[in-house]
Amino acid sequence: MKKTVLRKYAQLIAKCGVNVQKGQDVVITAAFDQPEFVNMVTEECYKLGARRVTVDWTDTKNSKLHLKYRSLETLSTLENWEEARWQYYVDKIPCRIHIESDDPDGMKGIDQEKMQKANQAKYPVIMKYREQIENKYQWCIAAVPGAAWAKKLFPELSKNQAQEKLWQAILTASRALEDPIKAWQDHNQDLRNRYTYLNSLNIDTLHYESKNGTDFTVGLMEESQFCGGSETSLQNITFNPNIPSEECFTSPNRSRADGIVYASMPLSYMGQLIDKFWIRFKDGKAVEWNAETNNELLTKMITMDEGAAYLGECALVPYDSPIKNSGILFYNTLFDENAACHLALGRGFQDCIKDFEKRSLQECRDLGMNHSMIHVDFMIGTEDLNITAKTRDGKEVPIFRNGNWAF
């Protein structure tokens, strides 16, 4: 891929993604797949006035070694220096950039039970820091083509050819060709127009139906609001958390979900794929489920903690979206969730509640926002999906017809 094109993408992540402000710190998390591009992003952050940019390099194979050889006690312990890093996040509120490139099957074969217990043990310690920075910082998730990821998508091509083709797909989906900043300004305005209309309806429930068997109703909180595209932090800085993004989304009332939903795409979770699955809900909770592929992992995900069996997000994405129209199944949630309507098990979003900035986290949970250590999106959109809203004054309003916006 031409360096001039990649430079525009790096500028998009730094300026439109996290929107680095003069004097801010930046932390970039990335694998070793595209170090030259990570250096570009680092430089663009400095050009915007970043005080300090830190890159945390990751490696899936190394993570598997830790899971294999460390004891459960060691895996479950957050060392003093790790807690100090979280305290740094609280003190400095740095921008956070996550550059994804992982192999979708990279964690295949790990001890799932061991990983689950370790995550559960560390979660209470981490959360005391996370809750202090919630909605205060700018963050952005974007992607680059890792070699193993590219070969999974395009196995018939050589490694270099596959990565080049995945670069093209990523940049196209991310609106990063030609004039990326202008493209995102226009796109954000379109999403803003749509969620403003949704919020004007005063929706009580959304009913989903499709021929694959999905027949599902989810209820919203009276205080629920739809969001989409760019967000504004509590420090009054606008940023785009996901590049790409095609969704208008909200957090439902955790106790109001009934019926069955069928996944329409595979789910990449913890470096493994869960496929051909369904989940049945009653009074908000997942009470029954099955996956033809990796049902054990699906079960561990849904039972991770009490809130993991409840919904934290309902997202509306047209079937006629750029990512779906690409014809590529990315095996990566950042992209696949923007190819179809999806739901998320686990943690809800505080900023999906009206006047959230005036409410404590506990007040938001008391209103019905779900709380969990996970937030996992799974796709349910199909070309025949219909979604009908019932408003609080009893009207029925078509939201989706045949997989796409009805307005």
Write the layout of secondary structure elements.
Elements: H1 3-17, E1 25-31, H2 35-47, E2 52-58, H3 60-69, H4 72-75, H5 80-92, E3 95-100, H6 112-133, E4 139-143, H7 147-153, H8 159-173, H9 180-200, E5 203-209, E6 215-220, E7 227-228, E8 231-232, E9 238-239, E10 248-250, E11 252-262, E12 267-269, E13 272-282, E14 285-293, H10 295-302, E15 311-316, H11 322-325, H12 333-336, E16 342-346, H13 361-367, E17 375-379, E18 386-391, E19 396-401, E20 404-405
Parallel strand pairs: 1-2, 1-3, 3-4
Antiparallel strand pairs: 5-6, 5-18, 6-11, 7-10, 8-9, 10-15, 11-13, 12-13, 13-14, 15-16, 16-17, 18-19, 19-20
Helix pairs in contact: 1-2, 5-6, 7-8
Describe this structure in words.
It is built from 13 helices and 20 strands. It has helices at residues 3-17, 35-47, 60-69, 72-75, 80-92, 112-133, 147-153, 159-173, 180-200, 295-302, 322-325, 333-336, 361-367; strands spanning 25-31, 52-58, 95-100, 139-143, 203-209, 215-220, 227-228, 231-232, 238-239, 248-250, 252-262, 267-269, 272-282, 285-293, 311-316, 342-346, 375-379, 386-391, 396-401, 404-405. Strands 5, 6, 11, 12, 13, 14, 18, 19 and 20 form a nine-stranded antiparallel beta sheet that branches. A five-stranded antiparallel beta sheet has the order 7-10-15-16-17, with helices on one face. Strand 5 and strand 6 form a beta hairpin. The longest helix has 22 residues, at 112-133. It is globular.
